[in-house]
Amino acid sequence: MSSFDFNNLFVLDLANNHQGSVEHGLKIIKECGKMVRKHNIRAAIKFQFRQYDTFIHPEHVEGSDNIHIPRFLSTQLKLEEWRVLFDAVKDEKMLTMCTPFDNESVPIISEMGFDIIKVASCSAKDWPLLEEISQAMLPIIASTGGLAIGDIDDIVSFFDHRGNELALMHCVSIYPIPTKDFHLNHIDTLKDRYQNHTIGWSTHENQDEIAPVQIAMAKGAQMFERHVGYETDDIKLNLYSSTPQQLDIWFKAYRYAEALCGLNTKDVEKPTTDIEKKSLEGLQRGVFAKKGLKEGSLLDISDVYFAMPFVPGQISSESWIDGGVVINKSFKTNEPIFPDSITITKNVKNRALKKSIHEFKAMLNEASIVLNSEFGVEFSHHYGAENFRETGALIIDCINREYCKKLILVLPGQKHPSHFHKRKEETFQVLSGIFESVIDGHHRVMSPGETALVQPGVWHEFWSKDGCIVEEVSTTHYNDDSVYNDKKINDLERSERKTAVKNWGRFELVKSD
Description:
Pfam families: Cupin_2, NeuB. The chain has 14 helices and 26 strands.
């Protein structure tokens, strides 16, 4: 796991916009610092290093027809001048970052103490340089402009195998980028394919455009890069470099998109405000008596009607239960019906099970786990179906031959009590969420991919704070094979602690044999 936090990082690329002048470079750094503080941004100023005595072929030092070389040579800075700019970045409380374009620059970056090292898109397949960068053991951000997905696979594997901390930038190496070539949907691809790496967006668009950073942020990019500079009467910037004023607008646009997107709802459920609740209540329909109703009678849908305005506290149409409802008092025509005026007598215990089926299906969908049509589903509810959300689990039986495969789904806050198996040996592998267990007295907190062996006769229990899905691979399962630490559970008939789902789609529940 990475110890450097790449998330919410803005990379401000100085490139050659210092124009070979320390004074001008300092001006850019100070102006960027002002904007960073104004918007409370976590930022890094990025330098570009090339050792020109070896980087440029001797025959191209003068009169080269390569469009880049004259620009590089005309904006050279000496190492001591770079140190002045480096110290200025530190003084502005920003991180330091550098892109080496040759092997000789990497040791200098390490010696100077940069916080982050960058792989430019043009160097992403420069294996001698990548090898040198990997040995620096600095956090690495790699741009992916012009790379096929297989090339990115190679880079990720290369640095992962060497134990480097790596983040990736979606990048389009066109200056500036035409609208049709942004391909911001590629951020989704990178996030799905490289889930253990932070994904960002390196921009080269016209700097007056703000929509790309907002869209990239909404798609889940966690890093953002832009070229920066400062204009004077004599110095003008290219279309893909930001002035301080453009940087100000860019940061503001990002913060606005951040506010619009809100919380990461995968980690935290979307909050509902009191204002929203009140607004919805104003449009809800309540349950009213269609005619005079006598105390003790069964309440049928033909006895009521649904209308607005909703009376605070009454039963709403969304809470209506058809069948098995007895009224505890008499009602007059048009009188609202309140929860304390009824008793639910039908399938009270199974309501908790039926309600949870929706949640279990959603958990499988979120984890991208697809089931075929041949499987069994069983609720384990060791202290009664009505207490299922606190104690139990959902078991999906996939295969049970000489070998056995099950999926175990645990709701947030749910616990499966301590037990052992007389014959069965099993291995748990976490597929989704965080799985906690005590196996033979040892507490483990397990993440997706981790496994745990449970041998016959070994006590084990498990639970999940936020919900999880675990695959169980075992020897053959037998219905009489479990022994619980709580003797009360052992005294129950299997049908008292297990409920099978006869039809997953129609919520048909039957007692397990």
